[in-house]
Design brief:
424 residues; alpha/beta; FAD/NAD(P)-binding domain; 3 domains; 5-stranded parallel sheet; 21% helix; globular; binds flavin-adenine dinucleotide
Length: 424
């Protein structure tokens, strides 16, 4: 690496970071650098050897590494620089980065624009406060996935999984393929927290029982976990006395949620949203700090990789324009307000000038499942702007609604829109 100054620096090489780097380069950025703490490009996709990736973008059902490779090939072809095995330790609002690695040592670089693409991390036992002893054999589902799919180790043979997140359900099937017995998947909520397709393909197809409104009350075992005590819970998550059951196991996997990885964002003074735990962004994925953009799971936890790639494209293009001082000046910022049954919306605000020339996709999560046909509806004051019908709305599945240029003039008098999800 000859220089310490780049047009664009992308932190993280998952699908969000790869897409951002590619579009930044295609949109005129002269020097683009991806920094990745792992020894290979690709992010979490490298350990996701199951299929299910690329259905929207490529209309193909690809394994994670194959999906990643399609983008990694372009990184070389476009002359994008990479620093692997390198950790970004610090980021300032002025876009100065401090890095460390065995190859490059301790180093400082700067950029005209930065794209945050650090993904997210899994919640652990400490964050869900599981009582009992502290033996070996309690792991996050993603850790087990890395062992089995990348490093060639089995976490155990008799498994209980806490949480019905996608990683847990995918690991239930994976461990069954490898000869383990998955005794049960427990979910504290009265509904699934991952995708329905994963429930069908990973649990139902393999007769793995899912118990909704159940959790782990206690862990038994000293050196190694020997059993868990499970319990049914009511609607306020209180244990129902008498419903306890002891299940012998040598492994407890946790699939209890993901946390966007935003320590660097906070150092740079980027404003985070209390619900998503990711940066507040506009429709260019521009954060509250000028010149710092964000894409992928660092912003909010996506269900499908295709949408992460789309977000990376948008952030990378805007970052390249910013670096060239060509990003359109802001005219009027409109706030997006979550209405009835909407937990959050990304982007949290957008500029009307963007709507004059392109559609703006809004992504959101429903607060509670609605197992009936619904309208996803955008409103300005009392007027309906647009709506789309869906057969149902489930918390584990992201919902998208587009605003189009034809909606532009409605914003003459209004500064916010509300999106709600209601029964049809
Ligand atoms: C187990 C599992 C199964 C999935 N299954 C599917 C599926 O079937 N279909 C589908 O469409 N989607 C699936 N997804 C979702 C999809 O894979 C993710 O949404 C997507 O990979 C997120 O991409 P990302 O770029 O935001 O983050 P990641 O892929 O997590 O990449 C973030 C990268 O940033 C790096 N990084 C973080 N901090 C630093 C730092 N300080 N310095 C340097 N590097 C850093 C990390 O090492 C990592 O490589 C699955 C996800 C998981 C976890």
């Amino acid at each position: 690496m000859k220089t310490n100054h780049f047009d664009i620096v992308v932190i993280g090489s998952g699908p969000g970071g790869l897409a951002a780097a590619i579009t930044a380069k295609k949109n005129g950025a002269r020097s683009v650098l991806i920094i990745e703490r792992d020894v290979e490009l690709g992010g979490i996709l490298l350990q996701c050897i199951h299929n299910g990736f690329g259905v929207e973008i490529f209309k193909e059902d690809l394994p994670g590494p194959t999906y990643a490779q399609r983008f990694i090939n372009q990184i070389g072809e476009l002359g994008i620089e990479t620093m692997l095995d390198t950790m970004v330790l610090n980021l300032t609002a002025e876009r100065c980065l401090t890095l460390t690695s065995k190859t490059h040592g301790y180093r400082q670089i700067s950029a005209k624009a930065v794209v945050l693409a650090m993904g997210c991390r899994e919640r652990t036992r400490a964050q869900v406060r599981l009582p009992g002893t502290r033996p070996a054999g309690v792991y996050t589902a993603g850790t087990a996935q890395r062992w089995v799919n990348v490093e060639g180790y089995m976490p155990g043979k008799k498994i209980v999984i806490l949480g019905s997140g996608d990683i847990g359900m995918i690991m239930a099937r994976r461990l069954t393929f490898e000869g383990a017995k998955v005794e049960r998947v427990l979910e504290i909520m009265p509904y699934l927290s991952g995708l329905t397709r994963n429930y069908v393909q990973c649990l139902q197809d393999f007769d793995i029982p899912l118990k909704l409104q159940h959790t782990v009350k206690r862990i038994f075992g000293n050196d190694r976990i020997e059993a868990v005590e499970t319990v049914a819970v009511d609607d306020t998550w209180q244990p129902i006395p008498g419903s306890e059951e002891t299940i012998a196991c040598d492994t407890l996997l946790l699939s209890v949620g993901l946390i966007p990885e935003n320590e660097l964002s906070l150092q740079a003074g980027v404003r985070l949203h209390p619900t998503t735990a990711g940066p507040v962004v506009d429709a260019d994925f521009h954060t509250s700090v000028p010149g710092i953009f964000a894409a992928g799971n660092v912003v909010h936890v996506y269900d499908l990789v295709d949408w992460v790639t789309e977000a990376g494209y948008a952030a990378g293009k805007a970052a390249a324009l910013y670096a060239a001082d060509k990003l359109r000046p802001k005219e009027k910022m409109i706030t997006t307000q979550p209405g009835e049954n909407v937990r959050y919306i990304v982007p949290q605000h957008f500029d009307t000038s963007q709507l004059t020339s392109e559609k703006i996709p809004f992504q959101m999560r429903v607060s509670r499942p609605i197992e009936k046909p619904v309208w996803v509806e955008a409103r300005i004051a009392d007027e309906r702007l647009t709506r789309r019908g869906l057969p149902y709305a489930r918390p584990g599945e992201m919902i998208t609604l587009d605003l189009k240029p034809e909606h532009f003039e409605k914003f003459n008098k209004n500064n916010s829109i509300t999106i709600r999800i209601i029964e049809r």
